[in-house]
Amino acid sequence: MISKDLVEKAWKTLPTNKQSVIATLDNASKSVVSEMRNTPQHTLQYYNALSFLLDKVIVEIASRNIFDAPDGWFYSFEVTNKNAALYIRHVSEIQEDEDGNVVFDIDERFRLINYPVGLLTVEQFASRSKIEAGTVRQWIRRGKLRNAIKVGGEWRIPEITDPPTRGFSPVRYYNNGHFFSLPRELGVSLNQHPCVIDIYRAKEEKGYMVLFDYAPAILPQKLLTDAEREKLELMLIGNPNIINSASVVGKWPKVKEVERLMSIRRSGDMRLPDGWDENLF
Fold it and tell me: Is residue 250, in this structure, part of any structural domain at all?
């Protein structure tokens, strides 16, 4: 049983009003600049784009009417390859894991403000990265540029993007409950639409393992080849209803959460507390 003092201390870290939302984002912006100067892990273009985006959003939120969150709710901010968004989340339960970390169980999440992330053409990204456009297209075809976005028949790359590193990195894809079909040559038929798809390199054999909702995929052959894995990832990356772990740039405040939501984005009637006007935003 988690102590009352620990619960109260945990709530103090969460932004629940306009001032604390702005303070959280201001600290995030300062952290981005500090990392860029002291321990850079990304390109200068990446840091400039993210810092500029956070500063613009701070100005946007400062101009909005943001009301104090009701009991049990808090604000959070998330940047993905598509948008920078302010959410309000509801905490159903607060727990403590075996390492003594506070974990928030989230059962409701609603997006209140959405700010689009700037997109580059393949040619613009290639020029910025000082490489050939053909190399960028090859990265996309091979599933290496995972936060690329397909707009119509053309690919776009978010400004907040680094050129991929060498080798394969494990990845998790998230489906918003939508139907999708897999490449026929995989020989896999889905009885339900998986919400989570994990792809990682097998440890002892040559090839890639695929998990659908944490269960191994039933494949004609035990593992995927390089070509099969690349085709699968290209299909997943090109699906607008599917995001992946590489497409999430950052989330603030940085607290440990478990989202027990039916889908990534919710619609329809909201479950809001008494006296809360859903038309305020």
Answer: yes
